[in-house]
């Protein structure tokens, strides 16, 4: 990213000042300021600011493998300004890479087979656990109780939204694992109904979503698998699209897919918890994240705030009545 502010002339002395604004997983942003001096300006120490640039650098080892950069900590007010600016520009680059130039993917939904429903449900949970356990997440936003991270793996982008909630983990778990309540706090869900009660902890839902871009709303058929790990006070709600012959695509909707998504809920103490939402973004649901990736929308933060409010306003009686 370059900004040309003025020309230099023959005989000018050019001074390049560079500083590391921020480091990410395998790259660093360096800000460069270029000043030009003629003889008089040089003697007076007053140069002309003619150019600014933000450069992205990668480092490799002897095997030409990308090296992980150490994190930097801003100290001064100006350091913090440049640090936050680099995060904002990172989001813009993500938007350009994944929103503007993304390619439509092949169908990723699994065919639901009642004969293998146990293994399909368990695989749903295991795939979600693998997504959660991945390393290399980079923070792109931090506002009060909400943090947003992204993870880039070749052409795959995943997002992690972490929320601090002043309610017990078991309450958050029961509320968020009941997807019929999702439209109460998530504006990206218009309706959500159970179409197959597979087991006490596994249900298949039919979901409709509002128009993101284009002229049709979207719909999904998803398997939701919830698990309670009581020994560690941790709960998971895994989500993945499935194909049901009884619910074929409708001409009124664009059938969309969730590759791998869900909630990880961890108790902080008896009265509070962290709720983390993960999503390995597919092309069909990318429009709902486009504004945040590009930096021109706060829809993810707004939805996360709505989720926090929904949980914190709930009572234990409401959670018990769900199942």
The structure class reads: alpha+beta
Helix content: 10-25%
Assembly annotation: single chain
Sheet with the most strands, sense and barrel status: 11 strands, mixed
Report how far apart the termini are.
53 Å
Name of the CATH architecture of the largest domain: 2-Layer Sandwich
**Spatial extent as radius of gyration:** 24 Å
What fold name goes in the CATH topology slot of the largest domain? Answer: Alpha-D-Glucose-1,6-Bisphosphate, Chain A, domain 4
Please provide the count of β strands. Answer: 15
Q: What is the molecular shape?
A: elongated
Task: Give the CATH H-level superfamily of the largest domain.
Answer: START domain
State the helix count: 7
Low-confidence residue ranges = none
CATH class of the largest domain: Alpha Beta
- The ordered string of helix (H) and strand (E) elements is EEEHEHEHEEEHEEEEEEEHHH
What amount of the residues lies in strands? 35-45%
Mean pLDDT: 86
Task: Provide the number of structural domains.
Answer: 2
């Amino acid at each position: 990213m370059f900004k040309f502010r003025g020309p230099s002339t023959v005989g000018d002395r050019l001074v390049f000042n560079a500083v590391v604004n921020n480091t990410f997983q395998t790259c660093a942003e360096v800000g460069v300021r270029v000043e030009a001096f003629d003889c008089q300006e040089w003697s007076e120490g007053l140069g002309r600011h003619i150019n600014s640039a933000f450069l992205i650098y990668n480092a490799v080892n002897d095997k030409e493998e990308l090296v992980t950069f150490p994190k930097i900590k801003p100290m001064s007010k100006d350091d913090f300004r440049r640090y936050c600016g680099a995060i904002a520009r990172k989001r813009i680059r993500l938007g350009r890479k994944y929103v503007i130039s993304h390619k439509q993917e092949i169908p990723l939904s699994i065919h639901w087979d009642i004969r293998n429903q146990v293994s399909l449900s368990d695989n749903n949970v295991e795939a979600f656990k693998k997504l959660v356990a991945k390393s290399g997440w980079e923070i792109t936003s931090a506002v009060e109780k909400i943090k947003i991270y992204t993870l880039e793996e070749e052409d795959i982008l995943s997002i992690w939204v972490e929320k601090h909630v002043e309610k017990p983990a078991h309450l958050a778990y029961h509320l968020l694992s009941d997807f019929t309540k999702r439209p109460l706090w998530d504006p990206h869900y218009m309706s959500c109904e159970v179409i197959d009660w597979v087991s006490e902890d596994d249900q298949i839902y039919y979901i409709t979503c509002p128009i993101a871009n284009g002229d049709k709303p979207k719909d999904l058929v998803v398997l939701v698998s919830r698990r309670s790990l009581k020994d560690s006070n941790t709960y998971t709600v895994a989500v993945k699209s499935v194909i049901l012959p009884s619910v074929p695509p409708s001409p009124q909707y664009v059938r969309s897919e969730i590759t791998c998504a869900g909630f990880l809920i961890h108790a902080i103490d008896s009265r509070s918890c962290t709720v983390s939402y993960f999503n390995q973004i597919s092309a069909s649901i990318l429009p709902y994240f486009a504004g945040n990736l590009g930096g021109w929308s706060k829809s993810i933060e707004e939805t996360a705030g709505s989720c926090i409010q929904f949980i914190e306003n709930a009572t234990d009686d409401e959670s018990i009545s769900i199942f």
